[in-house]
Amino acid sequence: MFKIKLKRFLIIVLLAFPQISFSAQESIQELEPLVITRQKQFLLNSYSTDSDSAEAFNYQSGLENLSSLPLDLQSRSLAGGIQADFSLRGSTFSQVLILLNGTRINDPQTAHYNADIPFTKEDVKKIEVIPGAGSSLFGPDAIGGAVNFALKEPLEKKTVWEFATGNQRNGYGLFSISDKFKDLGFRISVEDAQSRGFRYDTDYKKFTSSLSTQWQLPLGSWKNSFGYQEKEYGAYDFYTPGMGYPSREWTKTYLLNSNLSLDKDGLLIKPNFLWRRHFDKFALNETVDNYNDHRTDMFVPSIYFQKETGLLGKVGLGLEWGQERIASTNLGKHIRNHQSVYLDDSLALGQKWDLGFSLRLDDFSDFNQVYTGSTNFKFKFTPEAAFNFGISRSMRVPSFTELYYNDSTTIGNVNLTAERAWNYQAGFEYQQEKLSQGLVFFLRQEDQVIDWVRTDSTQKWQARNFTSDDVFGVEYSLHKKINQLFSWDAHYVYTDKVVDSQGYLYKYGPNYARHLVGTTFVLDFPFGRQEIGFNYKQRPGRRGWLLLDAGFNYNLNKNAKIFLSSTNILNVEYQDIAGIPQPGRYIQAGLRIEW
Asked: pTM for the full model?
């Protein structure tokens, strides 16, 4: 069976990317040094998309641009990133760590709200995807990997006004202004979006506002970011596929992140404070006056020190304290605390070898102490080509929903324990100015995995630690700049899981992408940037689907452009999550003015 599956994915690789060669002439541009708020994690494969690369498609939300990276973005019937889950290398939606400028912001109630990030696309400079073994440094939940949203620094004078309208009575407006007075920079952004929906109970409204400031100090800088977002959307069968419930959801998100960065004689000191509050009001059946109200709070003060020591390289020490609270009409009132301490080290041995190491201890009030960490190395064959290898240990504590939720179809489990996983990966990368390419083989061994299961249709779905999984696969990425006008990006991920289901039925089924293929063609004409993208996804036991997207731009002058963009041009019928149809063809036109 293993040989048959191996042959199958190799055939798909060859069909999808006929120009693949494993010689030392190819690698991937996205395998760039990844600099977040802690150690420079340059040893393992990472991928990123920045605000400039998202220009041509003119997506309403930066989340939508993640389709160009090897990440499985699982959305539910709504455009604009209104409600979406993240999956990396076959992980569940709860096993991906979400970061804002390197600080964990995962929702403690449920990972279904991890995409509630209260900043507009004008605030986000880059989205970094860190799969597998390179992600455990940043805390719990990084079993499949991590996604970091890096905000722009308000260091320039700039005003942006953008609006667009499309079919399904969709539309949005965005205004952003930034300026700098001596050592103080600021940015204010406001966005409003709404849609009537492509079918019954899929309408939505979204409002986002944010304020970012940066104060340059003699020894560093002080950055503050505050965002607010509220959403209302129809949620037909979002969490009960096939039951026919006309559901509705209202959410509000507040997020404050304050970071001080000081460099004194080579000693880097970074105190940080993060607060996130999330309100959720949910009606499983909006025709009945029966609502669940939830409020969660996260408080995470931390401090990080880093010193260049010479012999030992760059050594970092971090201390973190966190508290998560929930007050809910369904889940009750609960508080849990955790303390963390972590070490990291990055060392270059001559011209050929780079070594990395991290060790972390998390102590949760409701769970046992858990040690996690990683070790990795890179060997450079030539200045352009390198081999890398990494091992990491990661964990995830159950969400409040998994522990305490109860309704007519679903019940939590207060006896859950933390998930644990080992990640192994080995890769090859090659990077030149016009051609870069990377290949990674990965294996993940998961234990005490949590999922919603039952043994027959008469039972409620219940959260259980019920299985140990082996997840393996291969990941390939390519960037090719053909000339000044034309470039090409592509990726392919094959993932398989060996699962002992123990006779249980899954609520959502095995909902990971076995085959994930994406390719984007970019044309940079003098009058504007044009982009065409293809994405193919296939889940176990289901047929795959191919989506075609395009974005066309015309520059009216140096300050203004008009644009036309379309998603699912072929009007393909598909379901990212079984039982929940996705939107068909969507076309929008808009105007952007920037000065």
From this structure: 0.90
